Amino acid sequence: MMQTTENETQTDDSEHEQLVQVNNKLEHALQTFKDKIDQVGIDRPELFDGIGEEVDERLRHLISTVENQATQVNVLKAERDQVEDQLQTEIKQLQR
User: Fold this and answer.
1) pLDDT in tens, 7-18
2) Same domain as 4, residue 38
């Protein structure tokens, strides 16, 4: 019975140590992420006009900006495709 208890204790200690290591890695990654967002705020303060200094506010703002830019890129691609089609049609007509 004592051996089972020791094995369970060792397993619990091992699992706890693994969780501590994972937690430390996650905390380091989060701190790195925060530092990078803070650095963007220092390097490009105009990106955050009217936005507080909290990292989560800045992150939400950056995500929103990227989403808006992705939408604009898609619109521009669609317009480019339309203009390209029109040009191809005009080229074909001129070749006739």
Assistant:
1) 556 668 889 999
2) yes
